[in-house]
Amino acid sequence: MIEWRGVSFWYHGQPEPVLADIDLTVGEGELVLLAGRTGAGKSTLLGTVNGLVPHFTGGHLEGSVSVAGVSTRERPPREFAHLVGVVGQDPLAGFVTDTVEDEFAYGMEQLGLAPQVMRRRVEETLDLLGIAELRRRALRTLSGGQQQRVAIGSVLTTHPKVLVLDEPTSALDPTAAEDVLATLARLVQDLGTTVLMAEHRMERVIPFADRMLYAPGDGGVRDGVPAEVLEGTPIAPPIVRLGRFAGWRPLPLSVRDARRVAAGLRARLASRPRPERSAPVGEEKPLLTAEGVVVRYGPTVAVRGLDLELHGGKVVAMMGRNGSGKSSLLWALQGSGPRQGGSVRAGGVDPKELSSARARKVVGLVPQTASDLLYLETVAEECAAADAESDAEPGFCRGLLDRLAPGIEPAAHPRDLSEGQRLALVLAVQLSAVPRIMLLDEPTRGLDYEAKAALARMVTELAAEGRAVVVATHDVEFVATVADRVMVLAEGEIVSDGPTVEVLGGSPAFAPQVAKILGEEWLTVDEVAAALPGGAR
Questions:
Q1: What does the longest C-alpha to C-alpha distance in the chain come to?
Q2: pLDDT tens digits, residue range 464-479?
Q3: Do residues 426 and 353 touch, judged by C-beta distance below 8 A?
Q4: Which residue has the higher pLDDT, 240 or 191?
């Protein structure tokens, strides 16, 4: 279905190719996972499938790419619309209409489908993705995860033979991600659709994947079944890391497979002391207090009279299904977003009453769409502006960026960076102001495992310095690593609030992979390794 023959690609002005001598074939009805470090060329490889690379991006392409026997060199991307459906990293950037229903119909209108066919497919896709209640909602009023499901649905309605998805589950809660992946697997099995998917949260996708492509960052691509490819990759999901530590062969790729071979490891851990988590919050004065916070968007109530205290030295994870009010609450706490009721006090002042420059030093926020905060021409200019605005030493912002995503060229345009690299840049810009309270909205979106580990170290360091950190995320593995406390929101209210091990460990939706395999007391591979310093055997 898809063939790359001798493909190499250079972006203009880059001495080294992003892709080098790629020879691959993807057959009909295969679900293929593409993994690799942030900036390793995954999005570029996906872009070659329908000709966006190089027809839209520019650059120099050698070799040939064909889909169903049609060469992308000979035809423009628009002539692949009936063959290839593409969902990019930023769903909002791909929308062309105003409402969910119109967006679902738009692609079919361009293909000239009959109205009765369009109507039927819209209904089928709304039900398939479980978003029928969003039918008439304006796209810009949706949460990031809802937008992501709509973007996937707008592509599914055209019934393409090939689906290309770039981070399709990055903004979805665990249950919604499983639903979407199960839908894609059903399309593969029942309709013979070919799915090529780049995803950093491999633990979600591997059980569904027929093959795995790994981009190490040197321009090449390794190809094989997931268990073989993951044997030697430096990035791996927790279940694979646990399998390596325990010496399980073959490596288990699903929780079910791992539980079948984990009896010995569970027995050894039973005699070991439970992992020590951070001490509970004492009587110290909170850095931020929110009382009765209410946020509305027209008739929709996003946050309902919510009370919250944030203490220094603690990392709080905010979780919940898409549309539960997490982002609305963060913006209300930061002061830039709407707040129709209640009060917020940080350092004795309401951030809403401060100038933007002063507010940044009190409460920093990294939004879901990180690129909204980037406005200059180069990475170097963004870092220099951050240093100047924050009264920091020259090079301070760049140093933070290199810890998160090393190797980004200073002369690169921020809009040319990968999603993960842009996120790292915005995080470095916001941290340059050294705020006492740091709010992060989906900070791991687009980050590979090594970048997430670097982010986790930085978050832990911020807390160790006495700051309060709030992370709104669907990434349960990241939460298990960094959070002292977890709050679960539903319909704008806190429905669960407690220590991480209590909230995550026994939850069927939010439990990390290690907890599902070894029991709710154990959340991460590092905890297991610390309990068994001599190894698992």
A1: 69
A2: 889 999 999 999 999 9
A3: no
A4: 240
Burial class, 163, CB count within 10 angstroms (exposed 0-12 / middle 13-18 / buried 19+): buried
User: Which among 196, 257, 277 is positioned nearest to 31, based on CA atoms?
Assistant: 196
Closest CA to 204 of 163, 233, 175, 230: 175
Q: Residue 512: what pLDDT?
A: 92
SS (H, E, C) 333-357: HHCCCCCCEEEEEECCECHHHCCHH
Q: Residue type for 212, please?
A: M
Place of tokens 């209108």: 109
Domains, the chain, in order of start with CATH, read 236-269+498-537 (no CATH), 288-490 (3.40.50.300)
**99: which DSSP letter?**
B
Q: How confident is the model at residue 359, as a pLDDT?
A: 84
Question: Mean pLDDT over residues 4-22, rounded?
Answer: 90
**pLDDT score at 452:** 85
Q: Is pLDDT at 283 greater than 80 in this prediction? A: no
At 317, list the tokens: 């994870």
Quick check: helix, strand or coil at residue 265? helix
**Radius of gyration from C-alpha coordinates of the chain:** 23
DSSP 484-517: SEEEEEETTEEEEEEEHHHHHHT-TTT--HHHHH
